[in-house]
Design a protein that fits this description.
Chain B: Keywords: Signal, Transport. Chain B: Belongs to the bacterial solute-binding protein 1 family. Chain B: One of its GO terms (cellular component) is ATP-binding cassette (ABC) transporter complex, substrate-binding subunit-containing. The complex is a heterodimer of chains A (about 325) and B (about 425). In chain A, about 65% of the residues lie in helices and about 5% in strands. Chain A is mainly alpha-helical and about 325 residues long. In chain A, strand 2 and strand 3 form a beta hairpin. In chain A, helix 9 crosses helix 11. The longest helix of chain A is centred in the N-terminal third of the chain and has 40 residues. Chain B is of the alpha/beta class and about 425 residues long. Chain B has two domains: about 190 residues, D-Maltodextrin-Binding Protein, domain 2; about 210 residues, Periplasmic binding protein-like II (D-Maltodextrin-Binding Protein, domain 2, 3-Layer(aba) Sandwich). Chain B has 19 helices and 13 strands. In chain B, strands 2-1-3-12-6 form a five-stranded mixed β-sheet. Chain B has a four-stranded mixed β-sheet with strand order 8-10-7-11, with helices on both faces. In chain B, helix 9 crosses helix 10, helix 9 packs across helix 18 and helix 18 packs antiparallel against helix 19. The longest helix of chain B is centred in the N-terminal third of the chain and has 23 residues. The termini of chain B are far apart. The chains are: A mainly alpha (about 325), B alpha/beta (about 425).
Chain lengths: ~325, ~425
């Protein structure tokens, strides 16, 4: 008896494997092969659109990305006079001072380190604000009022516009003279002189980019949260009301806990997408300030350093992977 | 049996119906990648060509107007060995970067036409004896100035030195603003972090006697007192005689401000001449052109610009593509573009052509500017020019936005260029 069922089980198992072959093949072709190719290229000095011979360089691309050095900076000297130039040249990343002494941190690819910092700051603020505003909008749209359907459709408009197109629109809105809407508007209110350079002033670049991203992606957040809100059964609120719980109590005891799974999914979605941000940075600030992806693009296409760019891709992949695992662990997505 | 024959006949019919469009396609298609302000005239030229050669279909692919972005796109086509584009319009600084992917026009009998063109450009487009691109038009930057405003404020001619320009721009700007135009600025140029800034900044440096970044002996010369003076001078314009926005302006965005009558001076390429004189232009007939100023009179420098026509190695219709490129570079086509759009021909004889001079009188006076334009160090730093140029414009941009002084920026830049090219520092 057990012999027969065991045979049957084996048969079924081998059939299952056979049926999985197409799926596995497709996965190998569309996911694992390109990824493996990128990892392989990251160990070479391959040139993009080049005809030169490619050489194997080992971990050279990776070590140069993360090489850092700290040197003391005398008052009468410039950074480039202090930092080492052999075998690899270090460029200024940042300076700081302790005990009245200036120190300088040098990096072989300071733009890359800055790109990581830019991307993380951008992601943190953009996702935080999008969640906040998305929540508020979802709560409003979830209540019953006339024209709710129309409201929901209108709300989604910014998200429906292609990123590059909306970035171009914002480029005009942010134009650094009164040709631009925002400068016009602010100068009418008496703020600024109508000449604020939102996209070239280094202190305003990230806030401007975050603003554009919040404008664009809040609807998406609102939509996901709204879907979660509609899953909360009305009876719970009724029961709470009977037990004498107020609106605020209802929100924190019923809405928030029941919303956690959809909120977690929305947060993961947005964080991972924000870490990959490319279009906004590329269109609005180009070669002035990089995100991880736009720096990667510059190294690949602008500098044609395909080996280095592949190493950057792998690093981005690992960073995003770490974020994904962190989220899953802290929000307990696996258990749901 | 009969059923089988019926089925066979039916499938044959269906197959032949689907293959009809393929059979009908005996017209060869040649695709040209063009961008920015050249698109319209490329379309006109394509139509002119198709009228004469009805068996060839010429299509235009529009590419980004920023030259940096356009190069990015071309490299992607070449990496994929794509045959989608046959003829590429390439910047004067790209032959060294793209040569490996382009055909040699000498193999297609270009010998008999090269003598008509400017020697400097033919030389620029020849690598290891291979003529990889035909000159389409040449460019040299000019100073455009408002004749009416210069008259009104008592100046009898355009400035010859940067000091004069600064003084005139400040006076006119203050005057126009007191009349109520708060958006008026003295001097416009292209300060965005892109290839255009390399052109502008090279002019500042060269017109101060600061060299050309890298000299022809492969020595890095950019870190010198005159170059530092030039870049610091330009940084002092931002917010004073030039809008703070200038660090985000390119050719077209600066032209919009100029053509709306909101500037006294602008540095730009000759193409804006005919646009400024078009019917809907506020400044029609109110402006003229001069060479750019120098540190001292006569030290004017203009960056050599211009675009070339090249045929991809991966094209499937090389013969037809070469023929189209030859037509677009021909005397007839260049004359058309010179008259209709004030693009500078690369054919010497057209500078004596009466019809051309009638529509663009400045061609005659400024022939010297175009002949003696300063080339960017693209040949000497090939194939790393793009990286050198990016480092240069990023350094200059950081000075313009006030992040660092010119001395520090250029000091750093010389090592940066050494890192990229391996050249000695002079």
């Amino acid at each position: 008896m057990s012999q027969i069922s065991n045979n049957l089980f084996k048969k079924e198992q081998s059939l299952a494997y056979k049926m999985l072959i197409p799926t596995i093949l497709i996965l190998v072709i569309i996911a694992i092969y390109p990824l493996g190719q990128v990892v392989y290229t990251s160990f070479t000095n391959r040139v993009f659109a080049g005809v030169e011979e490619t050489e194997f360089v080992g971990l050279d691309n990776y070590t140069s990305l993360f090489s850092l050095t700290i040197k003391e900076l005398p008052k009468d000297k410039y950074a480039f006079e202090v930092l080492p130039r052999e075998p690899k040249r270090y460029k200024e990343l940042t300076t700081f001072s302790i005990f009245n002494k200036q120190y300088i941190i040098g990096s072989v690819h300071p733009n890359f380190i800055e790109a990581i910092i830019n991307t993380i700051i951008f992601t943190f603020f953009a996702v935080f604000l999008e969640t906040l505003f998305g929540f508020i909008i979802a709560l409003v749209v979830n209540s019953k009022f006339i024209g709710r359907g129309v409201m929901r459709a209108i709300m989604l408009l910014p998200w429906a516009v292609i990123t590059v197109v909306s970035a171009r629109i914002w480029e005009w809105i942010l134009f650094p003279s009164r040709i631009g809407f925002l400068n016009m508007f602010l100068s009418k209110l008496g703020i600024g002189n109508g000449q604020i350079s939102f996209l070239t002033d280094s202190g305003l670049q990230l806030p401007s980019l975050i603003m554009v991203d919040v404008w664009k992606t809040t609807p998406f957040m609102a939509l996901l949260i709204l879907a979660g809100l509609q899953l909360v059964p009305n009876e719970l609120y009724e029961a709470a009301r009977v037990d004498g719980a107020g609106r605020v109590k209802q929100f924190f005891s019923i809405t928030l806990p029941l919303l956690k799974p959809s909120l977690a999914v929305a947060l993961i979605f947005r964080t991972l997408a924000s870490l990959r941000v490319f279009g906004l940075f590329q269109v609005l600030v180009g070669q002035q300030r990089y995100s991880m992806s736009s720096y990667n693009y510059y190294q690949l296409i602008g500098n044609r350093a395909m080996g280095l760019a592949s190493a950057i891709s792998v690093v981005i992949f690992i960073i995003i992977f770490i974020f994904a695992v962190m989220y899953m662990k802290t929000l307990g997505v696996e258990d749901e | 049996m009969q059923k089988l024959i019926k089925t066979l006949a039916l499938s044959l019919l269906i197959i032949s119906l689907f293959s009809l469009p393929l059979l009908a396609q005996d017209r060869k298609t040649v695709t040209i990648a063009v961008g920015g302000n050249s698109v319209d005239s490329a379309k006109d030229l394509a139509n002119m060509y198709m009228e004469k050669n009805p068996d060839i279909n010429v299509e235009i692919v529009e590419t980004p107007s920023s030259s940096t972005e356009r190069l990015d796109l071309y490299l992607q086509f070449f990496e994929a060995k794509s045959s989608k584009v046959d003829v590429y319009t390439i910047d004067v600084v790209w032959p060294g970067i793209l040569a490996d992917h382009l055909i040699d026009f000498n193999d297609y009998g270009a010998k008999k036409i090269v003598d008509k063109h400017f020697e400097a450009i033919i030389e620029n487009n020849t690598l290891d004896g291979r003529l990889i691109a035909l000159p389409w038009y040449t460019d040299g930057a000019l100073l455009f100035y408002r004749t009416d405003l210069l008259n009104e404020y008592g100046y009898d001619g355009p400035p010859e030195t940067w000091d004069q320009l600064e003084e005139m721009a400040a006076t006119i700007q203050a005057g126009e603003r007191s009349k109520g135009n708060q958006d008026f600025w003295g001097y416009l140029w292209q300060g965005n972090a892109y290839e255009g800034l390399t052109c502008d900044a090279l002019e500042w440096v060269a017109s101060h006697g600061g060299g050309q970044i890298v000299n022809s002996n492969k020595e890095i010369t950019i870190y010198n007192d005159q170059a530092i003076k030039a870049i610091d001078r330009a940084a002092s314009w931002v917010g004073k005689i030039s809008p703070p926005a200038v660090t985000g302006l390119q050719e077209e965005s600066s032209r919009h401000i100029w053509q709306n009558g909101n500037a006294a001076f602008i540095r730009n390429w000759p193409y804006i001449y005919s646009l400024g004189n078009s019917e809907d232009s506020v400044i029609k007939g109110k402006f003229d052109v001069a060479p750019l100023p120098g540190d001292e009179p006569g030290m004017s420098a203009s960056t050599l610009g211009g675009w070339q026509l090249a045929v991809s190695k991966y094209s499937q219709n090389k013969e037809a593509a070469v023929d189209v490129a030859m037509f677009m570079a021909s005397e007839e086509a260049q004359k058309y573009r010179a008259i209709e759009e004030s693009y500078n021909p690369t054919i010497k004889s057209l500078y004596q052509d009466e019809e051309v001079l009638e529509s663009s009188p400045f061609f005659e006076d400024l022939y010297g500017v175009f002949m003696n334009a300063v080339p960017r160090p693209s040949t000497v730093t090939a194939p790393n020019y793009n990286e050198v140029s990016t480092s240069f414009f990023q350094s200059v941009h950081s000075v313009l936005t006030g992040e660092q002084g010119a001395r520090e920026a250029l000091g750093n830049l010389q090592y940066e260029i050494q890192d990229i090219t391996g050249f000695e520092i002079k």
